[in-house]
Specification:
Blueprint: E1 7-16, E2 20-23, E3 48-51, H1 58-73, E4 82-88, H2 98-105, E5 111-114, H3 121-134, E6 140-147, E7 166-175, E8 180-188, E9 196-201, E10 218-223, H4 225-250, E11 259-262, H5 269-276, H6 288-291, H7 298-308, E12 317-324, E13 328-335
Helix pairs in contact: 1-2, 4-5
Length: 338
């Protein structure tokens, strides 16, 4: 039997932004061990970042963001029938946090799936949830994503000042036929799989392990410097290709976009990607200066802030796009409903 399609879109937003602000002065007495020769300073375009309390588990953080999204949507917890969760650091190695978030929120009617495409996971989950709503497989899907960089960073690494903590969540549900998700496009370049990883290793400043002391090895963000540079150099063209494919599917062009939101891995990426697809200046929102790189939480937090600042109105064309370690890219076009 052929199903009649529905339209899925965002009907609620929730965030959890930590209270603790870590400014650049934190690194005054830390020696950066691997500062590239072509970088004259530690900080580029960033003044502060946020840090979650050490006693909170990732699932606690995700539950708070999810609770806020449910309240914002006006739905009851009984209305949620699926939870999609991405944790850039989960409570345990296995299993993921999805079922734990479902339990902590008391979502007794909801299934729970862990979804992971690294920093691009939020856009991936929006695409997945919108299409599940379209097929009427589910009615109201909670999407939650979090990053706790502060537990993963080697602070002697030159990339550490750019990383911040944050969590965001949205509810995707049925919206009017001319609103919500329109189209998306994605790709992957697996050759760069080890450009960004988390590996157990010693911090850069710990050169020698003393045999009678506890091992200083920790799970830390680790880069393949050569491949990381290659990913950076090709990122504008890669994002241009994937965004233009999504725009073509949606039958709109860059100047038609009313709000552009992206992952913000560094100070230049957001505007370089925006300019590459001809989205007008002022038709975007980013927070790199005050929050840094919040991985998959960047877009939901910036979406929340953009809405609070009045940058979203009913019928606006919204383009969300991200790269993710692996390496992958994804972009999605939405017609905003409020």
């Amino acid at each position: 039997m052929k199903k009649q399609l529905a339209s899925g879109g965002i009907i609620g937003i929730g965030v959890y932004i930590p209270d603790e602000v870590r400014t650049n002065e934190y690194w005054d007495n830390i020696k950066i061990a691997n500062l590239p020769n072509d970088k004259a300073m530690k900080f580029e375009g960033i003044e502060s970042r946020r840090v979650f309390p050490e006693d909170l588990l990732p699932s606690d953080i995700e539950a708070i963001a999810g609770e806020n999204a449910i309240k914002d949507s006006g739905l009851s917890k009984d209305d949620i029938d699926l939870v999609l969760v991405h944790s850039m650091l989960q409570d345990e190695l296995v299993p993921g946090n999805a079922s734990l978030v479902q339990h902590k929120l008391g979502l007794k009617n909801a299934g729970a799936w862990n979804i992971d495409t690294c920093c691009s996971s939020f856009v991936t989950m929006i695409t997945l949830a919108s299409n599940l709503i379209a097929m009427k497989e589910f009615k109201n899907i909670l999407i939650v994503t979090s990053v706790i960089h502060s537990k993963l960073m080697d602070y002697s690494d030159y990339l550490s000042p750019y990383a911040g903590d944050g969590a965001g969540a949205v509810i995707v549900g049925q919206v009017p036929d001319n609103r919500g998700y329109i189209a998306s496009s994605c790709n992957s370049h697996g050759y760069y799989h080890d450009a960004f990883t988390v590996k157990e290793r010693m911090p850069h400043n710990d050169k020698i392990r003393v045999h009678y002391k506890q091992s200083p090895s920790l799970p830390l963000m680790t880069t393949n410097f050569k491949k990381m540079r290659e990913v950076g150099r090709s990122s504008v063209e890669d994002m241009k290709i994937i965004c233009e494919l999504a725009l073509e599917k949606a039958e709109v062009k860059g100047p038609d976009i009313d709000l552009f939101l992206s992952h913000q891995p560094c100070h230049w990426a957001h505007d370089a990607w925006r300019e590459a697809i001809d989205v007008r200046e002022g038709k975007s929102h980013q927070t790199f200066t005050k929050y840094g790189n919040m991985a998959s939480a960047c877009i939901p937090i910036n979406l929340y802030e953009a809405r609070e600042e009045g940058k979203l109105k009913d019928g606006d064309n919204v383009l969300i796009t991200s790269s993710g370690a692996g390496v992958n890219h994804i972009a999605a076009v939405l017609k905003w409903h409020c």
